[in-house]
Structure prediction request, 917 residues.
Amino acid sequence: MEILMSIVVGVLFMVGTYLILTKSLLRVILGLMLLSHGAHLLLLTMAGLKQGAPPLLGEEAAAYADPLPQALILTAIVISFGVTAFMLVLAYRTYKEHKTDDLDKLRGSADE
Amino acid sequence: MTVLHWVTIAPFLLAILVPFFYKFARPIHTGWFVFVLPVVLFIYFLQQLPVISNGGNILYTVPWVPSLGINFTVYLDGLSLLFALLITGIGALVVLYSIYYLSKKTEAIHNFYVYLLMFMGAMLGVVISDNLIVLYVFWELTSLASSLLISYWFHREKSIYGAQKSMLITVFGGFAMLGGFCLLYVMTNTFSIRAIIEQADVIVGNPLFIPAMILVLLGAFTKSAQFPFHIWLPDAMEAPTPVSAYLHSATMVKAGIYLVARLTPVFGGVAEWFWIISAFGIVTLCWGSISAVRQKDLKSILAYSTISQLGLIMSLLGLGSASLYYGYGTDTTLYTTATLAAVFHLINHATFKGSLFMTVGIIDHETGTRDIRKLGGLMSIMPITFTISLIGLASMAGLPPFNGFLSKEMFFTGVLNASQLDIFNMQTWGMIFPVLAWIASVFTFVYCAIMFFKTFTGQFKPENYDVHVHEAPIGMLISPIILGSLVVVFGFFPNLLAYSLIEPAMAAILPGILPEGQQFYVNIYHWHGFNTELFMTIGVIAVGTFIYLTAKKWMQLSIYLKERDPLNRVYDGSLVGLIKGSQKVTSLQMTGLLRDYFAYMITFMIFMFAYTFIRYDVFAIDTVNVAGISPYIWVVTLVFIAATLAVPFINHRITAVIIVGVIGFLLALFFNIFRAPDLVLTQLLVETVMVVLLLLAFYHLPELRKEKFTPRFNGVNLLISIAVGIFVTATAFSSLALSNSNGLEPISHYFIENSYELAAGKNMVNVILVDFRGLDTLLEVLVLGIAALGVVTLIKLRMTGREDV
Prediction:
């Protein structure tokens, strides 16, 4: 199971990297979203995907899934959500002001 | 703080007061206030003569940075006193001369005297300091003050060029020297020169010995304008003439000489030191004297002549260090002749070169030109200047009865003795020294003759000058007259300073050669009898005269057509090349494209990964849990991968939003499969909000364009992306295998056991978030708050009235 998830994470990282290397500002943001998905899934995978009950004490099970990485991922999801939302608005403003989303055209002038 | 400390920093203190004198005592030339200080200091140093000449010394320490072994230690022995007397004595004469040379009405003389005093203090610090770091600080201050003085007329382009050049070259050497000092500290664990000299025999075998020596010599050679670092000196002639006379003939350029002499007891006695210093000195001597002949400007001639004379002194110091190899013995006195000649010529050169610069300044001041093609026939118009020049030039050419003759004879004795040494391979190469020395002396004679005859003899042509030519005012003549008389006095009474100054100086350069209680016995004769040296001098005069008379013919040689030193092309070329090269590197690497910087970072990361994997052979794969995956999970996984791979190919924004949403929701499904109910909730919620946000924003965002596919560009990106994917997967595999094999238990048992007992909650994830690790949550809330504020700011705030942001 972990092997399979590692491959999924690899695919997410590959596509995310490809997207942030493209010219379109929107694709870069999509790439960052995929990269954060990859990171979250990697966190969960690395803690071990052993079978067990959900980390709720009411379940009265012999083994529980590890609660710590879940707490970490929860924090990471919220933070990446905030950052992504901010970036999206930033991209929107950039497009409104500069009338382009082509990163090749969003360069400083030569005399800077 | 003792008197000697105050003496060293007195020029700096006075320099602070100079602008006030300039502002509040306008009728009096500021130079008069400055003049007092070097005179007082000179008298102070004269009073130390009896102590020093009896073999004593003065040593005081004031702590500066004691924890690093850096103390302001002043140490006065024969060598320091000799230099201190030169600095203050010629300093006083130069200040006096400058009072008449620089007009208080048209020149910014307060700047001039501040820089000059700063230089004087720094130079005193260099020669009096016993601590290498303090010496270095003063050393760099002389470089700084020198550059400021060269660029005194800063509206002239050539002055700025000369100042920059001297700064670059001397500071380069200064840094190298600092490195050498640090290596000395590494070897001896002290910065004190005296303590290092005491350990001299310990460090000879050290592997750092040669690097330290070369670095220190780089400092000395750049400062003392030795080949090939001499090129800054001719361009430093853009400075006012008093500066040239003081810095670039008598004092600063001798700082390197001082350093070599001071450290001779440390490094001397080995073949490398002997050869490097002697060879560079003799090459500089020849190069300088040959180059001086082709100059058309009086100050340029003097600049190259200074270079060549410095080479002479340097080579003598190198040859004299051979006596350290022998130690005390009956032969030793034979080889110390070279050191004696070096010290004696040091004094002589300071006297005649100072006076020559001043007379050239007078000629420039009174005729408006220094070009020897325009000058001529000044003998009867400027009789006093003529007399002083005649004495100085005859002394420089090495003619009797002036002091230059004596030091030149001793120089010949030194090189002849050296050529008969049977150490350091001198048997095979020794004859080079007398031959080169003789050739250089011939050219020295020739340029002295050119300077003399072209300036003072021939027809006086008034139409060549813009001003009415007449003799200089008496005030301007006082200093050159004093220096010129010293040339004559030292010529007729060469032993005047022998006991009081030269012997202690030699004892400082070559300590431990003589048995306890004995002093060097110096006696300089005018008449040696008919020996080789005398015939060499006669040959110099004969051949020199011949060359001067036939000058018109061979001045057509290609090397003599160019006025500038060919080495300047190397310097200028390397500066231009450095600027162009760095611009090229910068423009190649700083493209301004975000994509390129991402690519650099990621590629570097990949190489680090690859290196670590290969170097430590850490790739491992643990196939324990591969089997037993249900078909349902396979389907979800394949759909997830397919959706992810589809994203780069989408060219419609709505489709992109939907596919990204699908990926997010599938991720939530994964969380569900892996038993993380809180994550499922959050992910679903966040993804929904995200999709809504994307849809809202996308309405205002541009349509996704089809990426133009160029094989090279996309190929490279594809390669980088695949490599990232592979390395992330490989790292995941390897660390999983590692965590399975190392048998470390997770700490989560604590949370599972205690979340109800300690925190009264059954949802472990929530308990961790708000109880066990509540601080994370607090700051995460802060992040959301800041993001929200940022979004509001971006949308609401508009700069108006400025650039359209």
Notes: Chain A has a mean pLDDT of 85. The CA atoms of residues 12 and 38 of chain A lie 5 Å apart. The radius of gyration of chain A is 19 Å. Chain A touches chain B through 83 residues (CB under 8 Å).
